[in-house]
User: Fold this.
Amino acid sequence: MEATAPARAPNTSIPFVIGASAIGTVIEWYDFYLYAVLATFLAPVFFPGDPTAQVLSALATFGAGFAVRPFGALVFGRIGDKTGRKVAFLLTVSIMGGATVLVGLLPGYAQIGIFAPILLVALRMLQGLALGGEYGGAAIYVAEHAPDRKRGMYTSWIQTTATIGLFLALAVILIFRLTLGPETFASFGWRIPFLLSAILVAGALYIRFKLQETPLYTRAKEQGKTSSAPLRDSLGNRRNWRLILLALFGMTAGQAVVWYTGQFYALSFMTVQLGVGFVDAYTVMLIAIALATPFFIFFGWLSDQIGRKPIILGGCLIAAVAYFPIFNAMKGFAHPAPGTDATGKAIQIAQDPNIVGLTAMVFLMIVLVTMVYGPIAAFLVEYFPAKIRYTSLSLPYHLGNGEFGGWLPFIATAITAAAVAGGGLAWLGDVTPGGSTFAGLWYPIVVAMMSVIVGGIAIRETKNVRIWDEVGGHQDDLNAAADARAAAGGTLAG
Assistant:
C-alpha cells in the first residue's frame, strides 16, 4: 500500500505562520514608535521646566526604551531557548500592549507631579524590554518553519513589520491630528493612538494562541538538543562571543544606522533643519514607505539566490556614498529660508517645498533600508545554532539597532547643532559636503563603513547553511526524498 506524507495543519502552514508572526510584530513596532512620533506632544504633558528641557527629557525617555532592549533580548531569549518560541511570543506582545495602553491612560505632571515622568519612564522601559524579545522570536519562528532554500524570502516578511509599524503610527497620528485639530489633539487626542493598541493586541493574542511550537525546536527538544542554560551556553562561550561581536560590528550596526537614517533622521531633518511642515513631511514619509516596502521581499528573495552578505553590506556601502548627495538634493527640493516661530526664535521655513522631489529622495533611502534589513533575519538565524539561537541572535540585533541605530537621530542632530554653532565641531562645516547642516551624516556614514570593512573581511556567507540538518532535515525535503525513493521502487521511509 502506498504511503503518503501527512498534510500540514492549517495553523502550521507558511502563510498562517508568517501572518500570525507578522501581525503581532507590526503591533509591537507600532506601539514602540508611537512614543517616538509623539515625543513633542508628550513633553509638555509629562515633564516640568521650559520647553527645551521638556523636549530633552522626552528624548531621554525615548532613549530609555532603546537602552533596555538588549536586556529584553537576554530575558526573552532565555525563555525562547529553554521553554519555547511560542511562550516568549505571547509574553512580549502582552507586555508591550499593556504598557502602551497605560501610557494613554497615564495622568500628566499637572495631576500627579513627579510620579508622571517616573511612571512614563517605567512604561517606556517595559516597552523596550518587550521589543527586545519580540523581534528574535518572530524571525526565528518563521525561519524555523521555512525550508533552507527559501529562508531569506520567508523571513523578509517579518522585516517589513518595523516599517509597516512606523507607517501605521504615522498614519494614525496624522488622521487624528487632522480630524481633531491641532489644539484638541495636543490636549487629549494624542492619547487615542495609544489606547487603540488594546484592540490591536487583543487580536494579535487571539491569533498567536493558535500557533504551535516551531517544528525545528520541537524536534530539537525531542532529540535532547536544546539548552538547559542558554545564557551560560551563549554568553559563557568565547567562540560564541566572537560570533556575537562580529554580527554586531560587521552587520547589525551598519544595518541599524541605514534604517534609522532613512526612516527617522530623514523625518527630523525635513521638519527641523529644512522647516518642512508637519503634514507635508508626514505625507512624504507615508508615500515613500508605501512605495518602498515591497523591496523588503525582493531583497529577501534575492539573498536566497546570491547571498546575504553582498546585499546587506552593499546597501551599507551605497548608503555611505549616497547620503551627502541625497540630503543636499532634499535641501534643494525644500527651498528653506530663514524665518521665526511663534516665540520669535529663528528657524528655517520651507518655501513651497517640492513634495515629489522630497518623496523621491526618501524613497531612495528606504530602498537602501530594504537592502540592509530584508535579509538580516535570515543571516542572523543561520549564524547561530538552534540551542542558543534566540539568545544569541537577539543580543547583537538589539545592541546594533538599539544603541547604534536608536540614538542616531539624537547624535546626528547634536553633531549638526554643534557644527552650526561652532566650537569644538566647527571644523566639520569645512569638511562636510554642503556645509554644517549635513555634518550629522558623518555618524551613519562612519558606522556603515565600519560594517562594510568588518563584515566584508571577517563574516562568512551563510546562505548555504542548512539549519534543518541539526534535527535531521526539513519535512518537505524528507518527504521529497521519500517520494523519490518510492517512485524508484524503494521503501517509503516513515
User: Anything to note?
Assistant: The beta strands are 336-340, 346-350.
